[in-house]
Design a protein that fits this description.
This protein has 218 residues and is an alpha+beta fold. Helices cover 30% and strands 16% of the residues. Strand 4 and strand 5 form a beta hairpin.
Amino acid sequence: MAKKQTTKAPQQTPRKKVDHQYPRMPKTYSLLKEIREDSLYKAHVDRRDARARKIINEHGTPVGPGKLIAGNLYLMEYFYPKTEEQLDYYDAMPCSIIFGKFKTKKGEPRVLAFSIHYFPPRIRFQVMNKVMEIYQNIYKGSWKNGLGKDLSFLEYKQLLYLLQKAKLEFAVHEYIPKLIGDCILVPPSLWHVAVFTEGRFKKQTREAILKHWAQFKP
């Protein structure tokens, strides 16, 4: 009697460990401290961008553009803005915190968000750390999965006010949901990784854009 052949199931590649990805938010948590202690902190910008995106793709949660929640951070595709010809430059793969959703006078849905890629790393780290400090009690309960409901209007206004006060409101952008491609929710537990991603700027290079920052004093 012929021996029955068995086929081994293909082994899955184990996910790589994420530095400082705690199962819950530590009682004394500092996002800036986690960023500075991460293995990517001193890595070359290209390497850390590729590594950070790989981690987010593996550990983040894919969502549809119609299910974005105000207060959450998302890494998304936005290749063809409606006003592309009028823009000096734009980020085709923004990493953005959603402020809120609204409709135009014609009833067309829009998403308001600010992209951390418009800040150079040094400012980006500080801005995200400040957001985490202000909303720590909120993000504590959504550490692993992100917020399940929108931030309130008052909470959104407070965040926008802080950006305006620091002269950083230029990074606030309006997005059209139907033009958003693949979108990944980045929970608070992965914010210290998301800050190492870089924009895919069109019409100008990242280096050219960062030159504008050399003269900027918030």
